[in-house]
């Protein structure tokens, strides 16, 4: 499981544990996120940065003692349960994935509209030309390779 996604799941768990009206230090959100990230790295990867490296990553904002205390407190808050079930994973990440899903659906619809436009039959003087024909049409029409290139570009975009 990717470390950052697991971190998001841990933070979501915390949001159901910590009361919304809790009085916090200005750095509390940073502490919660960083300690969730540290636990996620340790639990979901074979090799994780040391506490000294995390101190460096934080720009020396947190001391080694801060990080050790934050990790212990986070483990207590999570009741030492770092396993993430697939149902929890998808319920937490669905709000993040939904906009991406909507964008992909929109892109697919746009591509389909372009393909439909390109498949329109051209009928001057009772002659029919289709993109699938080897002779695509009268002089000045796009060649088959040009249309295929256009479709490829549209797929990339």
TrEMBL record:
<dbReference type="InterPro" id="IPR006671">
    <property type="entry name" value="Cyclin_N"/>
</dbReference>
<protein>
    <recommendedName>
        <fullName>Cyclin N-terminal domain-containing protein</fullName>
    </recommendedName>
</protein>
<dbReference type="InterPro" id="IPR036915">
    <property type="entry name" value="Cyclin-like_sf"/>
</dbReference>
<feature type="domain" description="Cyclin N-terminal">
    <location>
        <begin position="3"/>
        <end position="82"/>
    </location>
</feature>
<dbReference type="GO" id="GO:0019901">
    <property type="term" value="F:protein kinase binding"/>
</dbReference>
<dbReference type="GO" id="GO:0000307">
    <property type="term" value="C:cyclin-dependent protein kinase holoenzyme complex"/>
</dbReference>
<dbReference type="GO" id="GO:0016538">
    <property type="term" value="F:cyclin-dependent protein serine/threonine kinase regulator activity"/>
</dbReference>
<dbReference type="GO" id="GO:0005634">
    <property type="term" value="C:nucleus"/>
</dbReference>
<dbReference type="Pfam" id="PF00134">
    <property type="entry name" value="Cyclin_N"/>
</dbReference>
<dbReference type="InterPro" id="IPR013922">
    <property type="entry name" value="Cyclin_PHO80-like"/>
</dbReference>
